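Customer escalation, tier 2.

The customer says the design service returned an amino acid string that "doesn't look like it belongs to this structure." They asked us to rerun it and document both sides in this ticket. The original structure tokens are below, unchanged.
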């Protein structure tokens, strides 16, 4: 059978499904949203900045957009209030919270958990039984969950590991809704550039030399991982390490 280069395999189709992606206006979330749309889904993206969310939705023909600060439970509830049913909920929002535990402001360090653990809880509670029982939730952690470092990421590493534990617990609590976690390694996204600042090029060059594949991952590769977790009905309570082998070095 002939197929076109951009065809989506039938096993990865999302025809008629409603997909809501927090963090869907840039980076991995935007790529996941584009791929879900290509797979036939009705896609709604949620971003912190209204202008960016609307721009992404307009540019890629998404079915809707919302603006919400994921650390604000009321804002998350408002963003989801008028959506009748969600088949796949994807929670990828979060900033790079870095600070030494003896020096950084406690309120700032709290954001690592507020943007991840509590944001996920707010979203799940807000949707309630409007989340399809045969649907899925995809959370995000990161390579720090396996390999923390000494550069002010202890709390972020803890929050990342907690996301994986939360997913396993929710997979049992919310069954038969499937709950999984994407754990990406170094991905070339805007958040990476922002976190590295003016040292970005030097740090990226060093990372390329040390990584097994001698490159960073792409948002498209990470987005494909999200699509896999949404569409594979036997993935549940699992963490998908999509890191090019960075955990091994």
């Amino acid at each position: 059978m002939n197929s076109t280069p951009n065809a989506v395999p039938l096993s990865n189709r999302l025809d008629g499904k409603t997909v809501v992606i927090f963090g869907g206006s840039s980076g991995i979330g935007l790529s996941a949203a584009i791929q879900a749309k290509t797979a036939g889904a009705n896609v709604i993206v949620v971003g912190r900045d209204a202008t960016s969310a609307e721009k992404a939705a307009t540019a890629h023909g998404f079915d809707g957009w919302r603006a919400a600060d994921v650390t604000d439970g009321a804002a998350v509830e408002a963003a989801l209030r008028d959506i009748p049913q969600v088949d796949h909920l994807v929670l990828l929002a979060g900033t790079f919270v870095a600070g030494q535990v003896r020096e950084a402001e406690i309120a700032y360090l709290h954001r690592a958990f507020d943007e991840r653990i509590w944001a996920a809880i707010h979203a799940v509670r807000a949707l309630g039984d409007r989340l399809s029982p045969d649907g899925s939730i995809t959370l995000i952690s990161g390579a720090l969950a396996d390999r923390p470092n000494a550069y002010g990421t202890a709390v972020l590493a803890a929050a990342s590991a907690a996301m994986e534990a939360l997913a396993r617990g929710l997979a049992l609590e919310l069954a038969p809704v499937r709950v999984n976690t994407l754990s990406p390694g170094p991905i070339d996204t805007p958040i990476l550039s922002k976190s590295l600042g003016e040292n970005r090029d030097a740090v990226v060059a060093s990372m390329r030399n040390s990584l097994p594949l001698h490159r960073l991952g792409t948002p498209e590769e990470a987005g494909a991982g999200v699509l896999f977790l949404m569409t594979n009905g036997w993935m549940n309570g699992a963490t998908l390490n999509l890191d090019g082998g960075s955990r091994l070095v």
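Tier 2 assessment: The sequence is consistent with the input. The radius of gyration is 17 Å. DSSP finds eight helices and seven strands in the chain. Sent an explanation to the customer and offered a walkthrough call.
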